[in-house]
Amino acid sequence: MSEFTILIPPLRDRKEDIEHLANRFLHATNAELNKNLPGFSDAGLQVLLNNDWPGNVRQLRSMVRSAVLRADDWITPSHLILGDAATEDRTSHSDNAEFNINGSSLKELVRRKTVEVERQALTEALKKTGGNKAKAARLLQIDYTTMHAKLKQYAIKIDAEQKDT
């Protein structure tokens, strides 16, 4: 039993905190990955401010970390993956054209896309961390055992290029 209860409104009700939090997460991730991204473009910041953040601060942190992984300069809307209607306009039409149902069940379609996204995320994280599996696991916010299992499951090898970058 606690003596005090502190009620903190959800992030969607504290829009004024979003920019400050996003910049803190950006600086922390820059330091972790030895990157030096200057910040968010105006359009990128607007994407953050317009989101409802159902996952609150953890979701914001995760999104910023992922964006830092993808970006080489200013973080723009194309680096911010929300998974909702706000990002649909950023999805290229060629990506949608490649999506083929072919009589597959929804479960199978989701499984295939999940495998595709996981494989891409693991590969990118390894590239960004120079092939360091422990750092890549931290970047993706998964434990090392899961990272190792996924690499084995998808037969992802750490090649010399990943170790040199």
Number of helices: 9
CATH fold-level assignment of the largest domain: Helicase, Ruva Protein, domain 3
Order of helices and strands: HHHHHHHHH
Largest sheet report? none
Count structural domains: 2
Roughly what is the average pLDDT, rounded to an integer? 81
Shape: globular
Q: In total, how many beta strands?
A: 0
The portion of residues assigned to helices is 55-70%
CATH architecture heading of the largest domain: Orthogonal Bundle
- Uncertain parts: 84-98
Distance between the termini: 51 Å
- Per CATH, the class of the largest domain reads Mainly Alpha
CA gyration radius, whole angstroms: 18 Å
Sheet/helix structural class: mainly alpha
Strand residue percentage:
under 5%
Q: Topology of this protein?
A:
Blueprint: H1 15-33, H2 42-50, H3 56-70, H4 85-88, H5 93-98, H6 106-128, H7 133-139, H8 144-153, H9 160-164
Helix pairs in contact: 1-3, 6-7, 7-8
Describe the structure.
There is one protein chain. The protein has 165 residues and is an all-alpha fold. It folds into 2 domains: 11-91, Helicase, Ruva Protein, domain 3; 92-165, Arc Repressor Mutant, subunit A. 59% of the residues lie in helices and 0% in strands. The chain has 9 helices and no strands. The protein has helices spanning 15-33, 42-50, 56-70, 85-88, 93-98, 106-128, 133-139, 144-153, 160-164. Residues 84-98 have low confidence and may be disordered.
